[in-house]
UniProtKB/TrEMBL annotation:
<dbReference type="InterPro" id="IPR029024">
    <property type="entry name" value="TerB-like"/>
</dbReference>
<protein>
    <submittedName>
        <fullName>TerB family tellurite resistance protein</fullName>
    </submittedName>
</protein>
<dbReference type="InterPro" id="IPR007791">
    <property type="entry name" value="DjlA_N"/>
</dbReference>
<feature type="domain" description="Co-chaperone DjlA N-terminal">
    <location>
        <begin position="112"/>
        <end position="216"/>
    </location>
</feature>
<dbReference type="Pfam" id="PF05099">
    <property type="entry name" value="TerB"/>
</dbReference>
Length: 225
């Protein structure tokens, strides 16, 4: 006979990763007003409800923090961009003279989702970045011109691509991304100093402990290619 009814009002809509469905779904952002009912008739206000996200599929209600989790589509794009950025950074650090390095780099980028990537495209993009002094390129600490793999601009690039992704990757996923970069660097022999610095920056941006990064890089170097 007596109960509480909530009248919902939709404020916005969009797409999110539904925790209950386990996939991308449409949502409605809603707020509501609670009213005490008597025999089904609203009689007294009982405050507000929400805001919540209501899944259009399971109709479950979730907090707004559910939007912090990227959709599957967005996550895939973030992962592709991360692999692409790490690959370019390692090519900038180690050079492109080695055919095996170029082939390993193209294979990594294709596997990440850029299936039509070619060696020519990577080299052209690297050349374009080298001409843009505001991004990956810089000057060496001793004043020489060229790509400084340890420079601030490169570190910013890697952190921008990897830090937003790291919280949504399992530890094994973060390690796999680092090891993928290690395989590119090792394709033509042991790590060079600049390649090692790039990979250390990658580990930091992925929230890996320095000891774990060193352990993984050392293990990769001992593994036959």
């Amino acid at each position: 006979m007596v109960g509480v009814r909530t009248s919902w009002r939709t404020l916005a809509d969009g797409e999110f990763f539904c925790p209950e469905c386990g996939g991308d779904r449409n949502y409605r952002r809603r707020t509501g007003r609670r009213r005490l009912t008597l025999l089904g008739v609203p009689v007294l206000p009982r405050g507000t409800a929400g805001p919540v996200l209501e899944c259009s599929s399971c109709t479950g209600h979730f907090g707004l923090d559910a939007l912090d989790h990227p959709t599957t589509t967005r996550f895939s794009a973030m992962l592709r961009d991360a692999v692409h950025t790490v690959t370019l950074a390692l090519l900038a650090a180690g050079g492109t003279a080695s055919r095996t390095v170029r082939e390993q780099a193209v294979a990594a980028v294709r596997a990440s989702g850029f299936t039509e990537c070619t060696e020519e495209q990577l080299l052209s993009l690297l050349a374009a970045l080298a001409a843009d002094t505001g991004r990956l390129p810089g000057t060496y600490h001793d004043g020489r011109d060229g790509l400084d793999p340890c420079g601030t601009a490169l570190a910013i690039e890697l952190h921008e691509a990897l830090e937003p992704l790291a919280p949504h990757l399992a530890p094994a996923g973060r390690e796999s991304l680092l090891l993928q970069g290690a395989r590119i660097a090792l394709a033509d022999g042991p790590y060079t100093g600049p390649e090692r610095e790039v990979l250390t920056t990658v580990g930091t941006a992925l929230s890996l402990d320095a000891q774990d990064t060193d352990r993984l890089l050392a293990a990769a170097a001992r593994t036959p290619s």
